[in-house]
Design brief:
The chain is mainly α and 323 residues long. It has helices at residues 45-53, 66-82, 88-108, 116-132, 136-142, 149-168, 173-184, 195-198, 206-212, 215-226, 231-239, 260-275, 286-295, 303-313; strands spanning 7-11, 25-29, 32-37, 58-62. α2 (66-82) packs antiparallel against α3 and α2 (66-82) runs parallel beside α4 (116-132). Bound molecules: fe (ii) ion.
Length: 323
């Protein structure tokens, strides 16, 4: 799940020349990282243009510089999302980049998950982006092929869960923030699962499955002990693998006992797993995935919630009304 690489990719479009933090930037050529700009030299509009013309989509920075870059990007995100400087696709890349930085950060430093102010700001920006871009899902999907599965997956699930809530239920802004926070942290408990199990390509043994299945409860116990997440967000972390027929885990609850937000996040989780592989590539068209969930996983999900999913992902002209 975590990169052993000392370089981290940053999408070129999320970099604002001149005000981007002064760090060394690298580009990747033939598998090698080559210094493009050293610390102390400005990154100008001209640099930006030149790289863009040469088809460079990502520059790379040292892992050690990520703290300063992440705070800069998170502080600028709202201004950029509201402004006209960036087009919809560039805004998508930026929200993607800040979300990836965030998820990467909390999976590496679990104690940072208690910074609720930061989490809320990220979800607010994600909501702002989704609400202003009718093709938000497509835009996000097109930029999601350059990172690690768990990070990409967390962001996809949070986006889809927010859209499903906004499509059919009128939640307050605070409730939406709780849903987004729970959804982006839904797999947080995977930090307690050994890498060998998470990254295993073959079939998991029964013991390994049991260890993997502890992640909702362990994530819940950890985050609950920090005392900063709302009950709604915590229930999403704990109950996103519960299923309507009682076959889910950790508690084996049945439909009416599973909070709606946890059911929606569970559906978003399965849908995203079916449609995107662990390298971020598309694997199954939306309508096939929905059909499969309706037929082969019939007893697992609420038909009403599947209708909402279908309406969202199988309609080309998606409109979102989040705010
Ligand atoms: Fe999970």
């Amino acid at each position: 799940m975590m990169t052993k690489d000392i370089f981290v990719p940053i999408s070129l479009e999320s970099i604002e020349p001149l005000i981007f933090p002064d760090v060394a930037l690298y580009i990747k050529t033939g598998g090698n990282y080559v210094l493009y700009k050293s610390n102390g030299r400005d990154f100008s509009d001209h640099d930006h243009e030149r790289l863009s013309k040469n088809g460079v989509g990502f520059v790379f920075v040292s892992k050690d510089d990520m703290d300063v870059i992440t705070s800069h990007m998170e502080a600028s995100a709202e201004r950029l999302l509201k402004g006209h400087l960036l087009n919809a696709q560039a805004k998508g890349k930026m929200i993607y980049q800040t979300s990836i930085n965030f998820v990467n950060d909390i999976f590496t430093n679990p104690e940072k998950s208690t910074d609720l102010h930061r989490t809320k700001r990220l979800i607010e920006n994600l909501m702002l982006y989704l609400s202003n871009n009718p093709d938000a899902i497509t835009s996000l999907e097109t930029v999601m092929s350059h990172n690690y599965y768990t990070f990409v997956h967390s962001l996809q699930v949070a986006s889809l869960a927010l859209l499903m809530h906004s499509e059919s239920y009128s939640l307050s802004r605070d409730e939406m923030l709780d849903v987004g926070t729970g959804a982006i942290l839904h797999d947080f408990g995977k930090i307690f699962v050994p890498q060998e199990i998470l990254n295993k390509s073959g079939k998991l043994s029964e013991d390994e499955i049991n260890i993997l299945r502890r992640h909702p409860e362990e994530g819940y116990i950890y985050l609950e002990s920090k005392g900063v997440l709302s009950p709604v967000a915590l229930s999403i972390v704990r109950l996103h693998h519960e299923r309507c027929d009682g076959s889910g885990y950790p508690l084996g609850l049945e439909s009416r006992e599973i909070p709606r937000s946890a059911q929606i996040t569970g559906i978003a989780d399965v849908y995203c797993t079916l449609t995107t592989d662990n390298r971020g590539s598309k694997t199954m068209p939306p309508h096939i995935a929905v059909q499969l969930m309706r037929n082969q996983m019939k007893s697992l999900f609420s038909p009403t919630l599947l209708d909402i999913l279908e309406k969202l992902v199988c309609t080309e002209d998606i409109q979102q009304f989040l705010l």
